[in-house]
Specification:
With about 475 residues, the protein is an alpha/beta fold. The chain is built from 15 helices and 13 strands. The strands form two sheets. It has a seven-stranded parallel beta sheet with strand order 3-2-1-4-5-6-7. Strand 12, helix 12 and strand 13 form a beta-alpha-beta unit. Helix 3 packs parallel to helix 4, helix 5 crosses helix 6 and helix 8 crosses helix 13. It is globular, with a radius of gyration of 22 Å. The chain starts with 15 loop residues before the first strand and ends with a helix. It comes from Populus alba. It catalyses: an anthocyanidin + UDP-alpha-D-glucose + H(+) = an anthocyanidin 3-O-beta-D-glucoside + UDP. Keywords: Glycosyltransferase, Transferase. Its EC number is 2.4.1.-.
Length: about 475
């Protein structure tokens, strides 16, 4: 279905929005979608990122003449590991205030960018308060973009109450009372084991105290901007709009012209004709985002599980998917499944999820992937890795009831038999399939007809005032 572009007339003034995401895949991608939506609604956009990230982003379509990508140094030395997310983020937080102020001043004094003075800054919620203070000092309107789930926003805003109630420690968020935490009347209670600062995955540089203290800072940052834009639609949690007085739901953010944007890897397009050759609703899509890592043993169990299921599968396997070592498949596995499945390094995910041959999506439950699956009406098999993914899993399985949870055994291993059992159960559950299609319809209505789409139009109108 085609959707007509929305734009201002040639003689109508338009806002010029500067977008500033954290330079990580899970943040850059939704910011790029946000930028394309702003252009579609008549705004001009400058997208600010690091030099190393800019080189990885898929090229912006030429017809987007009102969107520019500008890069600045990330502060790391040439010999530093630019793939170390923790070091990259810390360096970026340190250097970005100076770069940001200089960029705004130059563009407003000299209009070096060529598309007019910057009138509004939209900044990633996990960046410090400095960008908002710079925007205020320079007379710009300002907003925060919150790219996670409504329950995550509720949790961050409820941290002071959880401390006051003695449920968590004020220093590092350690659980003092093991009880479920009800963040929304519309969604399941959060297990205290799933607090996002207590789910590090196997990230060796994850420090619970640092993460918790930073979320306390985010709690205060959220109360500063003119607006808080959120990547969800109201029906996912009707109570979320009451969390803040200036909250605006703008999700789902659709793919630009049907293709993913802001990816650091190119999707293997050979999987699309392969999908064309499969029966409708027959393929298991398996992908775990840009950061999840498996042990060699768990990787083999997943491979054996896909083989045991005996159904067509499309499996995205990053070169760094196994923690610390190169990819090594079970002996003979690739030969045995060559007529059953297709393995790629990275998939064009939104095109894959939109394909009629896809039956379900085995996912890490990152919010971007969760929203993309909801948009396409695809049931999910939930295998979270770290952070907010465990809460997203609870919403998918027990709130919206559009997926099933894959459970590890007592040795924290997800066995091939558990994988087969849950796939078989999901594919035979007509209730889950029906729920997924209902959410798809709601997502479409919000993206193109009312709800979030109207919110977005109203937001752009406020930028013009």
């Amino acid at each position: 279905m085609e959707h007509t572009s929305i734009s201002t007339s040639p003689h109508q003034a338009s806002a010029h929005v500067l977008l500033l995401p954290l330079p990580l895949q899970g943040h850059v991608a939704p910011f790029m979608k946000l930028g394309h939506q702003l252009v579609r609604h008549g705004s001009k956009v400058t997208f600010l990122t690091t030099e190393s990230i800019r080189s990885q982003i898929e090229k912006v379509d030429e017809e987007e003449e009102h969107m520019r990508i500008i890069s600045v140094p990330d502060g790391l030395a040439l010999e530093d590991d630019h793939k170390d997310d923790n070091r990259l983020v810390q360096s970026f937080l340190h250097v970005i205030p100076g770069h940001l102020e200089n960029l705004i001043r130059k563009s407003n004094e000299d209009e070096l960018i060529g598309i007019g003075q910057i009138t509004c800054l939209i900044v990633d919620v996990v960046l410090s308060r400095d960008p908002i203070e710079i925007a205020e000092k320079m007379g710009l309107k300002h907003a925060i973009f919150f790219p996670s789930a409504p329950g995550v926003l509720a949790l961050i805003l409820h941290i002071p109450k959880l401390i006051e109630a003695g449920i968590i420690d004020a220093d590092d968020g350690t659980v003092e009372k093991n009880e479920n935490i009800q963040l929304s009347p519309n969604l399941p209670a959060m297990d205290s084991a799933d607090l996002i600062w207590k789910r590090p995955g196997n990230k060796s540089n994850f420090n619970q105290k640092d993460v918790f203290q930073y979320l306390l800072l985010v709690n205060q940052i959220l109360k500063v901007p003119n607006w808080v834009l959120c990547n969800w639609f109201d029906e996912l949690d009707p109570s979320a709009n009451a969390l803040l007085p200036n909250i605006i739901s703008v999700g789902p953010l659709p793919a630009h012209d049907g293709k993913s944007t802001g990816n650091f890897r190119s999707g293997d397009l050979t999987c699309l004709p392969w999908l064309d050759g499969q029966s409708p609703g027959s393929v298991i899509y398996v992908a775990f985002g840009s950061t999840s890592k498996f042990s060699q043993q768990q990787f083999h169990e997943l491979a054996f599980g896909l083989e045991l299921i005996g159904k067509p599968f499309l499996w995205a396997v990053r070169s760094d998917f196994i923690d610390g070592i190169s990819i090594e498949y079970p002996d003979g596995f690739q030969d045995r499944v060559k007529n059953l499945g297709k393995i790629v390094n990275w998939a064009p995910q939104e095109k894959v999820l939109a394909h009629p041959s896809i039956a379900c999506y085995m996912t890490h439950c990152g919010w971007n992937s969760t929203m993309e699956s909801i948009n396409m009406g695809i049931p999910m098999l939930c295998w979270p890795y770290f952070g907010d993914q465990f809460w997203n899993k609870s919403c998918v399985c027990y709130g919206w009831k559009v997926g099933l949870e894959i459970n590890p055994d007592e040795d924290r291993m997800v066995t091939r038999h558990e994988i087969k059992r849950k796939v078989d159960e999901l594919l035979s559950d007509e209730g889950i399939k029906a729920n997924a299609l209902k959410l798809k319809e709601l997502a479409h209505n919000n993206a193109y007809e009312g709800g979030s789409s109207k919110n977005f139009r109203d937001f752009v109108a406020q930028l013009m005032l």
